[in-house]
Write a structure and sequence with these properties.
transmembrane helix; membrane; 145 residues; GtrA_DPMS_TM; GtrA_CellWall_Glycosyl; single chain; mainly alpha; transmembrane; 4 helices
């Protein structure tokens, strides 16, 4: 009985450790993703493009970047067939559309139009909410094996 409890405890600890490592990798990918998204957004706003359109374009570019690295480095779809990868890509776009586009755009309107924050600071504040939500959605749905 005691051996079985130790085995279960070890398995549980390994799963927690594995998820933590996955979250750290997701964060590393997310940093590059955020830089790409933010730089795209900032350059387009600087060029005079509407902040919501700039957010949409930054979103598309960043989701493609995110999918590439998450499928190879975080959630390991390297051995998946084309159909599995395409399914994961579609799910990635859907999951990020909810948080990275809809929620982010709504919060941008709140921060910029209502609260009167800078167009350059508002997307940074959004990250506090969207990053943890994106990890959970990707882990339990988009890249679920």
């Amino acid at each position: 009985m005691k051996i079985r409890m130790n085995v279960n405890k070890d398995l549980k600890e390994k799963k927690i450790y594995s998820t933590l490592i996955q979250f750290i990798k997701f964060g590393i990918v997310g940093i590059s993703n955020t830089l790409i998204s933010y730089c795209t957004y900032a350059v387009l706003v600087w060029l005079g493009v509407n902040f919501l359109l700039s957010n949409l374009i930054g979103f598309v570019v960043s989701v493609l970047n995110s999918f590439y690295w998450n499928s190879r480095y975080v959630f390991d779809l390297n051995n998946a067939d084309t159909k599995q990868k395409l399914k994961a890509l579609i799910k990635t776009f859907i999951s990020y559309a909810g948080t990275g586009l809809v929620l982010s755009s709504a919060m941008l309107i709140l921060w910029i139009d209502i609260v009167q924050l800078s167009k350059y600071i508002a997307p940074i504040i959004n990250l506090i909410i969207t990053v943890p939500v994106n990890f959970v959605v990707n882990k339990v749905w988009a890249f679920k094996k």
